[in-house]
Automatic annotation (TrEMBL):
This is LPPG:FO 2-phospho-L-lactate transferase. It comes from Compostimonas suwonensis. NCBIfam families: F420_cofD. It comes from the Bacteria. Gene3D superfamilies: CofD-like domain (1.10.8.240), CofD-like domains (3.40.50.10680). HAMAP family: CofD (MF_01257).
């Protein structure tokens, strides 16, 4: 049975994976012949908030694949009220700028109950997925907390330049607009990949880096000891899809993240940042948008097989076609 592994962040990774599952269903109508998909999800954005374990990217992937996502927003559940969050804010507790809907809060309550009862994050995720049946195996990158923090390079409110703040505070409270000097993965030294992560990468035919944030989504996953090496050594083809089109992050603030680590916001620069597996990087292939076709020759010269195809995930059909292009390109290298 062929196997595919995707290393995903939140919205970009979730939408791509939904297109991938649709494309696989179209190509393999018989479920018995359909490749199995494992999604290794970034947990660097996770936090304890109001006594609850919140896992933004895991939940975005789970809701998106399970048909329970707020499509407009890209995260949370449709038509949920913010009444509970408003009550918590009225007590002056928590993060007033980080609103959680009340249906979403139920997920965090159940997860936190499981974790307090001794379950690992993988086990808790499996329980949550029994309800959502996402059609893929969702694995956290690690069962140990590895939380991304941002080193500020300017003062902001009660924070001084040089302070370390949680990634979600920089992202949501400051819309990534406070200059930063770097990212740190707190807890990463002692962390190990969650059960099944290394096996999935090693036993896959294709590993896909979807158009997720290359710094704070895919970069965070690759920072967990052992995962980058698994990509370097797997017999799978590793194909990536650029999250940058025409020199801009399509949605979100990936440009601020790339600037912080000194990488230009371009499909070429991000492809070279990941690098060719032939020279210690993680890619066999890198898809760029048609408007970035000029990046193909320099990528090929750097040992990364490349082609220019439409990368906009406009609707289910264009997203499935993009996933199909990634599979077809992987089959050619
Ligand atoms: P997050 O955790 O919710 O920020 O989501 P991800 O890290 O998975 O994905 C965010 C990235 O998706 C952003 O950096 C965007 O550049 C990228 N992205 C969003 N929509 C599209 C799209 O339609 N096409 C492509 N190629 N990239 C996209
Ligand atoms: Ca995220």
């Amino acid at each position: 049975m062929p196997r595919i592994t995707v290393l995903a962040g939140g919205v970009g990774g979730a939408r791509f994976t939904r297109g991938l599952l649709a494309e696989l269903e179209r190509r393999h109508p018989d479920p018995a012949e359909r490749p199995e998909v494992t999604v290794v999800v970034n947990t660097g954005d996770d936090m304890w908030l109001n006594g609850l374990r919140v896992c933004p990217d895991l939940d975005t992937v789970m809701y998106t694949l399970g048909g329970g996502i707020d499509e407009g927003q890209g995260w949370g559940r449709p038509e949920e009220s913010k009444r509970t969050s408003a009550e918590i804010a009225a007590y002056g507790r928590g993060w007033p700028w980080f609103t959680l809907g009340d249906l979403d809060l139920a997920t965090h309550i159940v997860r936190s109950e499981l974790l307090r009862g001794g379950a690992t994050l993988s086990e808790a995720t499996e329980v949550l997925c029994r309800r959502w049946t996402p059609g893929a195996c969702l694995l956290p990158m690690s069962d140990q907390p590895v939380e991304t923090h941002v080193r500020l390079a300017a003062d902001a409110d009660e924070h001084r330049s040089g302070d370390l703040v949680h990634f979600e505070e920089w992202w949501v409270r400051y819309r990534a607009s406070v200059p930063a000097s770097g990212f740190e993965q707190l807890g990463v030294e002692g962390a190990t990949p969650a059960p099944g992560v290394l096996e999935a990468i090693a036993q896959s035919d294709v590993v896909i880096l979807p158009p997720s944030n290359p710094v704070v989504s895919v970069g965070t996953i690759l920072g967990v000891p052992g995962i980058r090496d698994a990509l370097v050594t797997t017999s799978a083809r590793v194909v990536g899809v650029s999250p940058i089109i025409g020199g801009a992050a399509v949605r979100g603030m990936a440009d601020q993240c790339l600037r912080t680590i000194g990488v230009e916001t371009s499909a070429l620069a991000v492809g070279l940042h990941y690098g060719s597996r032939a020279t210690g990087g993680v890619l066999d292939a890198w898809l760029v948008d048609e408007t970035d076709a000029a990046a193909v020759p320099p990528l090929e010269a750097a040992g990364v097989s490349s082609s220019a195809v439409p990368l906009w995930m406009r609707d289910p059909a264009s997203t499935a076609a993009l996933a199909g292009a990634a599979l077809d390109h992987a089959a050619r290298v």
